[in-house]
Fold this protein.
Amino acid sequence: MSNLRPVIVVEGKTDVQFLSSFVKADFVEVNGSAISRETISYISTLARTRRVVVLTDPDGPGKRIRKVLDEAVPGLAHAFVPKERCIRGKKVGIAESDKESVLLALENVVPGEEAPLSDLDEASLFRLGLLGQHDSARLRKTLGEKLHIGEANGRSFLKRCRALGLMEEDLRRLLDGR
């Protein structure tokens, strides 16, 4: 990767207006969940030589955008701001969050590629109670906050933990509070 400023992918212009007041980066707006082929192609081209970080709203459309981009563009990184930090009035979004939450998310970016050293698999998550239990979603949410990887279903949680190179023992220690 080059020494160029990172590229941050956001949903719209209000996100860019908010973020550009305190983040030095180039921004790409996807204009909501209807991402055009041209925008995907542009992001793909950027990702060949630049670090591209996806920072979308912690809601359904934001998750959909992440999924579409992950499937189309290899190697994207992701930053997650917890949903409770992105609510102002009835609106939920990055532009409704605060500077500190965004900076913390950008300091804890999750790589887009899985780390080869992780020993985690679905069976690991079952053993730890992170899948298949009545409180698995709550446990994943708690760990997601500690790890700055956002709230996720089992498959996405596993992928994000593997991207960080986490081992089963790492998650066990986090669950035990150590």
In short: The first strand starts at residue 7 and ends at 10. The radius of gyration is 16 Å. The chain has a mean pLDDT of 90. Helices lie at 13-19, 37-47, 60-72, 99-107, 122-127, 136-147, 154-163, 168-176.
